[in-house]
Amino acid sequence: MGIRGVVAALAAVLAVTAAAQPAAAEPAAPPGVNDWGCRPSAEHPTPVVLVHGLGGAAATNWVYLGPLLVDQGYCVFALTYGRPAGVPPITGGFAPMQDSAPELAEFVDRVLAATGTDRVDLVGHSEGTVMPQYYLKFLGGAEKVRRYVALTPLYDGTTLHNTSEILDRLAEEIPIVGQIPDELCGACRQFFAGSEFMTRLNEGGAAVPGIEYTTIMTRYDQLVTPWTSGYLDGATNIVLQDVCPLDFAEHVAVAFDPHVGRLVLNALDPAHAKPVRC
């Protein structure tokens, strides 16, 4: 099954699961993720925290990358954040990002306490490349993060015109997002290029000193426009099509792409990087 087929199947699962779950239910994590008894190995001493994108959740955004990292010996954790009342439990990221960042801060502290470590690595997708920047810059997170791998990042925001356009484009691949009223998406307005939130976040430069950034962009991104918003000064910037020219993965599909999986593994453990087999 191709990347688009995987995303279509995931969308169908999301719709069925949303209908079946009670409103107060908390979605389960993918297999092996959020094992609070996991102890980091000498080979992979830093736990990994996965931060989903707009419309995603711990149980859905990371069904591919979560188990992949677990299989490679990492202690892997994922949260679902930013879910206002009335939003289905398997989708999140809709609250204003300054309200979601404390959720990430609390989750990271819980991971550090459980694993006995002093830092984590972050892997974020879409909003998961922006909201954590607030945590790093304003909530003391920079001292607790070593590496930050950003999938489809948008450090300069997006030029989409309004909240409806963001939700409509996302709903094309995650249908449940189409059930979210515009007024419930406080984060949507913050993504716009030149917004007050993005301006404050980027004062003094987007990158936070002391953190090793890797960004992974796709030329076929239909939500981050232009896709070059993902370039970050001081980061290792990767364009997926420069690595695999025939990989047409767009914004959502990047999180389920085996080529991206290898790039993420290489970014987390550059000393043992392996070639990407296109």
From TrEMBL:
Residues 1-25 form the signal peptide. Gene3D superfamilies: alpha/beta hydrolase. One of its GO terms (biological process) is lipid catabolic process. Keywords: Hydrolase, Signal. Pfam families: Lipase_2. One of its GO terms (molecular function) is lipase activity. This is Alpha/beta hydrolase. It comes from Saccharopolyspora thermophila. The lineage of its organism: Bacteria, Bacillati, Actinomycetota, Actinomycetes, Pseudonocardiales.
